[in-house]
Amino acid sequence: MKPSRHVTAVLVLAAFGAVGCSKRGDTSQAKAASADVAQTKPITPPVETTVPKPGDGEGFDEKSAPKITGSFADGEAAYRAKKYGEATAIFGSYTERRPGNAWGHYMLGLSAWKSGDLMKSEQAFEKALSIDPHHVKSLVNESRVFIEQKRHDDAIDRLTRAAAIDSESPDVYRLLGRAHHAKGQTDEAVEAYRRAIDLNERDAWSMNNLGLVLLEAKRADEALPLLVKAVELRKDVPEFHNNLGMALEHTGSFKAAATAYSGALTADPDYAKAKQNLARVEAVKSGPEEDDERAGSK
To answer: What are the tens digits of pLDDT across the range 254-288?
Structure first.
């Protein structure tokens, strides 16, 4: 039995409104390169990214502090401790002393981005790329800065360059998916996300993001298995549960949708969208599941 016209209208109106090296003494640079992915996951969108406000780092004030002349390792330690303002100052000093070291400018760009200074971040990544045009990590993370600024064409340019250098990076294709999605380029976004998942079958963020793209394209049946898998991989992400609930609603599985929204609230009891969605779906008195259960009990 299909949901009534009234139920269908409610779902259509509500669901989308409720929805994510080096020189001697610089031995830690390679480690910094391998660690940045875990430190800078995109954010779904609602995705993949929350950037700290400028000045983050236990009250560190770059302007009033004495000149810092720490080593690369000191800057990396500050970055790992999430003292992003301090890390920015250290790498700023480091790059003055080692202006030809692309990794120093890269870490300055990463630290400045995390501290909220997008202009300094872009300048640092560009400097790294002027030294080493094949510096994939600078291309990838500069694209994150551009996505945050809604400069999606610039992001696509950097990511296309990165893909030409490293065609096996799931990060590159996940971010390409985000940029194309933001521009309303559904086919390109789907292709990019599918490529990211092909490269990493445990890329839960790409699964979630692709699921959202398909939901918006009214392809809920295709979105559903992707969102189920994303939840299986990352039960701690409330957005994944919420998005799964949306897909289940669109396929008429209201009781299962309520379970998914409850899962979102287990992960984050203050998640307002999941609360609204759960209240709405619990108000639905009957759906295909309920009708099947009644028929089977006769």
So the answer is: 999 999 999 999 999 999 999 999 999 998 755 55
Q: Per-residue pLDDT tens for 153-187? A: 999 999 999 999 999 999 999 999 999 999 999 99
State what percent of residues in the chain have pLDDT above 70.
Answer: 72
Lowest mean pLDDT segment, chosen from 30-34, 118-122, 207-211, 223-227: 30-34
Above 60 in pLDDT, residue 41? no
Q: Whole-angstrom Cα distance, residue 70 to residue 75?
A: 7
- Asked if 131 contacts 105 with a C-beta cutoff of 8 angstroms, the reply is yes
3-state secondary structure the chain: CCCCHHHHHHHHHHHCCCCCCCCCCCCCHHHHHHHHHHHCCCEECCEECCCCCCCCCCCCCCCCCCCCCCCHHHHHHHHHCCCHHHHHHHHHHHHHHCCCCHHHHHHHHHHHHHHCCHHHHHHHHHHHHHHCCCCHHHHHHHHHHHHHCCCHHHHHHHHHHHHHHCCCCHHHHHHHHHHHHHCCCHHHHHHHHHHHHHHCCCCHHHHHHHHHHHHHCCCHHHHHHHHHHHHHHCCCCHHHHHHHHHHHHHCCCHHHHHHHHHHHHHHCCCCHHHHHHHHHHHCCCCCHHHHHHHHHHC
pTM: 0.73
